[in-house]
Structure to design on (468 residues):
């Protein structure tokens, strides 16, 4: 029963995302555009860009994820879906877990796939590209989940967007530090494994706590 | 035993009890602060390396302690507010955030004032503690901003409580990530003030000031919650009686 509900919520999210493929591409376009702005702003000094590339890539991806959070629950709120969730009697954390996992996949997968290409653009090469992809695969879901909690907390508020950024960005700092740190380390030929393991730890922590916190926030929004 | 606490958590009762305690607590705080400042700024010996400039620690270090303690109290109150829907705890969440944000700002300001003569610069990106303190300030601002954005005070308090609890999980992670990030990037180039065994003639006044800061925090928190309780319960009969003297 629980498994079927989980699968139903998951399938619905993926199907909705697939039917709005254009929206799916928007964070991706944003990411590519920001990465285009940095070289234009900094001049064509490839050495400088290469050195800053891990932080630039991570910051831009982080902002792209943040922008994708705003509409996460708003359609469900308008259509009454969240009210149904709360009154359905099914564990709200379980439903939130299904939605969060689907959401993390939908938002982060395109960003993860495109980031080595953008990194190559900035002169990153070799092993660092692989480390970048792995660090993003581990870190992006955490960013999605923390952002989803922020979206649930600011649900239905006027001017929720800037508030969402304000409450979520400080919580993004550890992921940014370990993610960009791993890529920096790989570029300088140092072992990146430590930072990646820490990211994996954050992923586990996020997966276990984010559904609970998001469910609590959604329940409060319906009181 | 439990019933006594349960009774205390009723706004009306709390208002009366806090009102009786506050004059004593206020007098104690003022006297204690004066004594602690005299001890730290006059009696304690000057540092052999930093001379008199180190004396700012008697304000800086307790502020930093209290900035963390206020967050912990806020998260604790948030948990109580979420689980038991206690009105006083809901109010405490916001008031803790206000006080904690000020302690954090004070710790940052005094830290920068201290950094100027010691490091030769106001701001040192390499110092993990300064950086975590800045992030803490943003966490507080987030809680305050979220609370202020919601009109219904009870709902606002519960939403802010969830954020406070998410923050308390993150604080140790942020602290250690900032610390490791430093060692990753530039090794131990940062001047660590020689931590080993501060002399007891300096340590005791510091601990005393820490105690006085806790006392100040409790007193002001109590006073702020008391005022806010009266405001939120304005249409109740007991509040009416209080207003009419």
């Amino acid at each position: 029963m629980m498994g079927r509900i989980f699968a139903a919520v998951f399938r619905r999210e993926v199907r909705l995302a697939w039917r709005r493929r254009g929206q799916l591409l928007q964070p991706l376009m944003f990411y590519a555009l920001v990465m285009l702005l940095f070289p234009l702003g900094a001049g064509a000094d490839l050495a400088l860009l290469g050195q800053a590339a891990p932080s630039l890539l991570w910051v831009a991806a982080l902002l792209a994820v943040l922008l994708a959070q705003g509409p996460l629950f708003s359609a469900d709120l308008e259509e009454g879906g969240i009210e149904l969730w709360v009154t359905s009697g099914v564990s709200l954390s379980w439903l939130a877990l299904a939605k969060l996992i689907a959401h993390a996949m939908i938002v982060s997968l395109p960003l993860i796939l495109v980031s080595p290409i953008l990194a190559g653009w900035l002169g990153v090469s070799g092993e660092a590209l692989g480390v970048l992809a792995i660090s993003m695969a581990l870190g992006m879901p955490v960013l999605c989940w923390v952002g989803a909690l922020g979206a649930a907390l600011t649900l239905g508020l006027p001017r929720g967007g800037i508030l969402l950024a304000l409450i979520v960005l400080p919580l993004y700092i550890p992921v940014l530090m370990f993610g960009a740190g791993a890529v920096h380390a790989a570029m300088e030929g140092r072992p990146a494994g430590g930072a990646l393991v820490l990211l994996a730890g954050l992923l586990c922590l996020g997966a276990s706590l984010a559904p609970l916190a998001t469910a609590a926030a959604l329940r409060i929004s319906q009181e | 035993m439990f019933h006594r606490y349960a009774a205390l958590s009723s706004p009306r009762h709390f208002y009366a009890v806090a009102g009786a305690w506050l004059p004593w607590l206020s007098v104690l705080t003022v006297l204690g602060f004066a004594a602690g400042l005299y001890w730290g700024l006059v009696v304690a010996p000057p540092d052999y390396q930093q001379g008199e400039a180190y004396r700012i620690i008697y304000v800086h270090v307790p502020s930093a302690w209290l900035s963390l303690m206020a967050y912990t109290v806020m998260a604790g109150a948030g948990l109580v507010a979420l689980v038991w829907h206690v009105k006083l705890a809901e109010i405490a969440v916001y008031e803790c955030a206000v006080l904690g944000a000020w302690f954090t700002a004070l710790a940052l300001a005094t830290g920068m004032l201290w950094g100027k003569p010691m490091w030769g610069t106001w701001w040192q990106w390499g110092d993990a503690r300064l950086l975590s303190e800045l992030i803490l300030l943003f966490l507080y601002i987030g809680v305050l901003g979220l609370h202020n954005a919601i009109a219904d005070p009870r709902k606002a308090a519960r939403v802010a409580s969830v954020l406070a609890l998410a923050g308390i999980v993150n604080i140790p992670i942020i602290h250690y990530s900032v610390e490791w990030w430093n060692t990753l990037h530039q090794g131990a180039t940062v001047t660590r003030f020689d931590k080993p065994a501060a002399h007891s003639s300096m340590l005791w006044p510091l601990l005393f000031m820490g105690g006085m800061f806790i006392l100040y925090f409790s007193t002001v928190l109590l006073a702020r919650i008391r005022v806010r309780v009266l405001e939120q319960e304005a249409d109740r009969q007991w509040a009416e009686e209080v207003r009419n003297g």
